Amino acid sequence: MSGNDVYVAGDETVPDGASYSDYATVWKNGVAKHMGLQSSMQVYAIFVAGNDVYLAGISISNGHYIATYWKNDTPVYVSDDPTSGAAAIYVSGNDVYTAGFIATAAGPRMAVYWKNKTLHTLDGTIAYGIFVK
Question: Which residue among 13, 51, 68, 99 is least packed, with the fewest CB closer than 10 Å?
Fold first, then answer.
């Protein structure tokens, strides 16, 4: 909630002719805004700072999953790693923190967070939340 506005981020399945399409969606006060096809974008978290809306998730670039956040619909690729994802976001002043994972060559995922696109590794498989105090 920001002021009297309530924001929710997720996916919405919408009829598309004879089939259905999944859209990454932000609802503001119950009104849906489609952000893009889910096959090219997935949203897992939202953060509102003033008039800015930040989303965290995964976009597909050149056939690879890339950790991404969006500020007011503009994508910022957090990682160059082709098997990464962002599951959480927090904004403090001019700093943007995202948390998520990078898949390792050995197979398991590695929990990570990025501060302004700078990678920090953690013990664990995936980070689902981040808060800065």
Answer: 51
Identity at 18, one-letter amino acid code: A
User: Among positive and negative, which fits the CA dihedral 94, 67, 57, 130?
Assistant: negative
pLDDT tens for each residue of 28-82: 999 998 876 556 678 899 999 988 999 999 887 788 889 999 898 888 999 888 8
Residue given tokens 């998730």 in the structure block = 57
Predicted local distance difference test score (pLDDT) of residue 34: 81
Strand, coil or helix: 24: strand
* Residues comprising the chain, all counted: 133
CA proximity to 47, closest of 83, 87, 81, 79? 87
Residues 36 and 70 sit within 8 Å (Cβ to Cβ): no
* Burial of 34 per CB tally in 10 Å (0-12, 13-18, 19+): middle
Q: Would you call 39 helix, strand, or coil by DSSP?
A: coil
- Of residues 126, 53, 122, the one with CA closest to residue 86: 126
Q: What is the DSSP letter of 108?
A: S
